[in-house]
Amino acid sequence: MGLINDNPENPFKEAIPGSPAFITSIDKVVNWARSNSLWPLTFGTSCCAIEVMMAAGAAHHDLARFGAEVARPSPRQADLLVIAGTIVKRMEPLLKTLYDQMAEPKYVIATGACAISGGPFIYDSYTTIRGAHEVIPVDVYVPGCPPRPEAFFYGLLTLQKMIIEGQTIAKPFERRKPVLSVLPPRIKLEQIRDELVKNLTARSVTDLNQNPKELGL
Amino acid sequence: MVTLNDRISCHTPNQDGTTTQEYFINMGPQHPSTHGVLRLILKMDGETVNDIIPVLGYIHRGIEKKAEAVGYRQQVHLTDRLDYLCALMNNWAVSAAIEKALNLEVNDRIQTVRTIIAELQRIQSHQLWWGVFGMDLGAFTPFLYGFRDREKITEIFEKTMGARLTMNYFQPGGMMYDIHPDFVKDIKEFIKYFRPILKEYEDLFSGNIIVQERLKNVGIIDAQTALAYGATGPVLRASGMPLDLRKMQPYGAYSKVNFTVPVGTVGDSWDRYQVRIQEMYQSLLIIEQLIDNIPDGPHMTMKYAAKIKPPAGRYYTQMETARGIFGTFFVSDGNDRPYRMHFRTPNFNNLWSILKMAPGGRVADLVAILSSIDLVVPDMDR
Ligand code: SF4
Question: Would you call the peptide bond into A146 cis, given omega within 30 degrees of 0 as the criterion?
């Protein structure tokens, strides 16, 4: 956990006064806001970074639909660390530093086999760290080598769900257990797209299926 | 000889005898414009870069050592992860090396399809470079354009190979699967779509006066120095040396097609930019000449699961990827695993040319120069 977190004397850890019902409703608003405005850190070490770039930056997949497109090069301004690529021994202390520098509350998605377990380099490599969780805590694992942009989105939606359900301001730094966000077997691309659309429709005020002609476009 | 100790001393006298305090700045490994985890230590005098000390190893995965523990068929999968933007060309180089060791001739269909796919990937790689190059210079639009068009090629690849980035498609002896029935149609559509777009790229970006001012006469390297540093690919060709293995030692189907090798004159960032843009036109030309007459034949000339045991000896094969010469050297002792595997990767050698390009320039130019060399860091560290 982060620096503040490990301090038992931490004043922020005290319970917040107020009735439980009041806190719960505030939690809802705060978590809704947090889950929809994740600011990812641009951090990629190898191949997976390209697919995350395709997912995040490019117009075709467009991360902006989930409110997570404001990629920041500085860890101080980011709250989502996407570990895209292999972590080797030499990078380990730097990854730890990057994580510590990020502001709370912070979330970590490990994309790709390398960040989960060492991936193709799990055997016979003398430098690879076997999974990012050996260095920092991870919230969501997205498997793949590299994961498709859809799989990455699936992981992001999982994280958003975790944030919405998980945190309460009464216990600010409590984390849920990490989850593996695997696309169900034999799922079709269309099904993923449908689910993304469904998710988006449920949470957005815009009608996604509107007829452009009616709007005069 | 200048030792590292001299290079890190902080007081270089100016020409007029006065001294200024030099200082060090650390750039990377977490830096948006080093394209990965490259670390550069810059010796600065005010805003001027006086010296650069690259520090590598932040993504050293021990691929060459790992290659000794896996069979010949699995080498292909490791080369995907070297220069992942030219994954297929790397696949081809290692497959060709193994084929050479086995004295295996592959048929015309395999050669033609390999050539087409390699050229497609060259375009794809240059598209990504173009987008990121724009972003490094402070323009966001190229990034969106480049990635939009890159996705089109990715989709063609995905149809045939079932993967988007690490394809493992070329195997020793042929290809993993035959091409998709839509392959030819899709590529023709892409060419029709992309030629005007390429023109648009140039209108949008090359014609911009800010871009020209930032690139022209910045980061000059002459052909002799570039050669001495071992630079290849567009970095070397931009300084006027037409070294392109596709022309000099034609492999695949390159001997059957007409194309020119674009070269620069000055060797500055602008020339490197132009060389890559022209290469995209040439790649389109090459694909156009081949796409209509892909010969018939099997797509694999070997049994899939056959264990490969090349006769003892040393083998080397090199190919021209989008970044330069990729070479595979291996020593076989007759077993099913190589005794030693070495990859000569273009990025490692291209990197050192910044030692000549950047000193004396401004730190903002360094970003443009780095981007114009088009580095892929895992390829350097392996
Ligand atoms: S999981 Fe695969 S694609 Fe991702 S970094 Fe590792 S080797 Fe590369």
Answer: yes
> How close, in Å, is residue B350 to chain A by CA atoms?
18
Regions of chain A where pLDDT drops below 70: 1-23, 166-177, 189, 192-193, 196, 199-217
**pTM of the prediction?**
0.83
Give just the sign of the alpha carbon dihedral A152, A158, A163, A167: negative
Q: Total domain count for chain A?
A: 1
The CA distance from B49 to B377, in Å, is 22
Q: Residue B19 domain-assigned?
A: no
In this structure, the number of other CB atoms found within 10 A of the CB of residue B103 comes to: 8
> Which domain range does residue B233 map to?
63-379
Residue B31 lies in a domain: no
**What digits encode the pLDDT tens for the residues B54-92?**
888 888 888 888 888 888 888 888 888 888 888 888 989
B55 within domain boundaries: no
> ipTM, 2 decimals?
0.81
Q: What's the gap in Å between the CA of B145 and the closest CA on chain A?
A: 8
- Chain A interface includes B159 (CB < 8 A): no
pLDDT, average across residues B158-171: 85
For chain B, the domain total comes to 1
Indicate whether B35 belongs to any domain. no
- Nearest Cβ partner for A124 among B30, B66, B377: B66
